[in-house]
Amino acid sequence: MKIQIITPDKTLFEGDADLVQLPGLDGSFELLKNHAPLISALKKGKVKIKSNEEKEQFFEIRGGVVEVIKNKVLILAE
Predict the structure, then answer these.
(1) Among candidates 27, 30, 29, which has minimal Cα distance to 19?
(2) How many other CB atoms sit within 10 Å of the CB of residue 66?
């Protein structure tokens, strides 16, 4: 699935991944390929992205919103 993490200043990440773990307001949750459409608020924490090559990357955010539509994940982060 295609992932984008965008802040007001720059794009933190843009690429493909198999798994995304996000800090939701009610707890951490994960997104996998073919996830149902979703819009959710995010709190301060780490975004974990696991790529196709089993490589993990972490990005610190101070909150934001995530939108999932047709294997495209857009994270608007602070």
Answers:
(1) 30
(2) 22
Q: Quote the number of domains for the chain.
A: 1
Could you tell me the pTM of the whole model?
Answer: 0.91
Radius of gyration, CA atoms only, the chain: 11
pLDDT in tens, 28-71: 999 999 999 999 999 999 999 998 777 899 999 999 999 999 99
Write the CATH number for 39.
Answer: 2.60.15.10
Is 26 buried (19+), middle (13-18) or exposed (0-12) by CB count in 10 A? exposed
Pick from 69, 61, 70: nearest CA to 8: 61
Question: Could you list the residue range(s) of the whole structural domain that residue 13 is in?
Answer: 2-77
**Calpha distance 39→30 (Å, rounded):** 13
